[in-house]
Design a protein that fits this description.
Elements lengths: L2 H16 L12 E7 L4 E9 L5 E9 L2 H14 L4 H17 L23 H19 L5 E2 L2
Parallel strand pairs: 1-4
Antiparallel strand pairs: 1-2, 2-3
Helix pairs in contact: 1-2, 2-4, 3-4
Bound molecules: zinc ion.
The site of zinc ion has 8 residues, from helix 2.
């Protein structure tokens, strides 16, 4: 990756971390999930409003943590808003495979171009958990699990 691209991606992460999109509780949420990453101290709650037709109408999150975890959650809410639940679940699988295992599997309806900004964390295994935290929350919320999601 060129220095220029690297700088751009870093800026995207810092931008989302300092100015997160869809931040705050969602009154109309039908599904929520908590997720914690004890290694770094990141914690967040994800809110989803899912229509009877299984479409994610709205997504938001609140929480605190490092720049990577907050930027990833912000990017997540932008990515999944408007998606069918099945496609969002595909996103979860694609993101975790890509960040945890470096595999890039194309799945129908999934466009993760923006999330390239997070690819740099693959160099730092402990930060992978920061980047995937919100996605574990997504997976938990879609599965409607009552136990908090954790990266451990
Ligand atoms: Zn973190």
């Amino acid at each position: 990756m060129s220095d220029e691209l690297e700088t751009m991606y870093r800026e995207l992460i810092l931008d989302h971390a300092s100015n997160p999109r869809h931040f705050g509780p969602l009154g109309s949420a039908t599904h929520t999930a908590d997720a914690i990453n004890p290694l770094c101290g990141d914690k967040l709650r994800l809110y989803l409003e899912i229509s009877p037709a299984n479409q994610i109408e709205n997504a938001s999150f609140e929480g605190s943590g490092c720049a990577i975890s907050m930027a990833s959650a912000s990017l997540l809410t932008e990515t999944v808003t408007g998606l069918p639940v099945a496609t969002a679940e595909n996103c979860f699988e694609s993101v975790t495979e890509r960040l945890s295992h470096g595999k890039s599997v194309t799945r129908p309806g999934v466009s993760l171009d923006k999330l390239e900004a997070l690819d740099g964390v693959r160099e730092f295994p402990s930060r992978v958990k920061c980047a995937t935290l919100a996605w574990h929350a997504l997976h938990a919320a879609l599965g409607n699990l009552s136990t908090p999601a954790t990266t451990e």
